[in-house]
Amino acid sequence: MNHWPFIIASYVLTLGGTGGVLLRAWLAMRAAETKSDELRRKR
Amino acid sequence: MHAFANPTRFLSIAKPLTPWLAYGGIVLIAIGVVAGLFFTPPDYLQGESVRILYVHVPAAWLGMGGWTGLAIASLMQIVWRHPLAGVSARAIAVPGALFTAICLATGSIWGRPTWGTWWQWDGRLTSMLILLFLYFGYIALANASEERTSVSRATAIFGLIGAVNIPIINRSVVWWNSLHQGPSITLKGSTIDMSILWPLGFTVLGFSLLFGAIVLMRMRAILAEARVEARMRRLAEA
Questions:
Q1: pTM score of the predicted model
Q2: In chain A, which residues have their Cβ closer than 8 Å to the Cβ of B218?
Q3: Are residues B49 and A25, on separate chains, in Cβ contact within 8 Å?
Q4: What is the ipTM of this complex?
Q5: CA distances for B94 relative to A5, B57, B65, B111, B145, angstroms
Q6: What domains appear along chain B, each with residue ranges and CATH number?
């Protein structure tokens, strides 16, 4: 049995999943902090 | 830990720390992945499929480590009412669930060429699946909490009780017969040859740093959203 399709699937899943959650966390943080800073400046 | 009870003090440390953790994690993962895929020999029994080790083990470690952190934060919330405990537990839950799911998926993929099956209802796999369901339950309870910057007492108690599953996962391969191999890395050393083992240190540390970066980002987002909500409330009342 060729093992490489299994290895590639594992790495794609891990790196894709981690990258996706990292990106989502970064976008949420950036949006929330930008909104908070804007409100502070308006005060 | 009470030195970090003030969110402003916490943010003064978290803001410069976040990029260091993120970039450091990415570099270490890149080194570990390249080495694991191209510079280590295949295992004499498992062949090339042993390379799944370099993503499966960090995922297992972070799935279990995540819940341990969540349980410690829950304890700090219940006992000391630490203001950031609920925020950190809420922030840990999603990446913890992600790495538990990755552990299960990569383990299943590894099982097919190694054991000849995708799944086996044995102690290790079943207790890890229970951990994933515990994460789902925690996330649902936390989202149901009225407090945006913390979690309800019931959610914190759930986080604490769920920690019972962690030693069960850890000892499952010793207590019950399993297709899953026994503990190959213990405090006494490793049964894995160093020619295969060394990139694992890079990926475990790299994914751990990235996990830390994700948790800090999520905590910063929760705290910023709370500041916005508080300001909007004050504006509405004025």
A1: 0.92
A2: 25, 28-29
A3: no
A4: 0.94
A5: 28, 19, 13, 25, 16
A6: 16-177+197-237 (1.20.120)
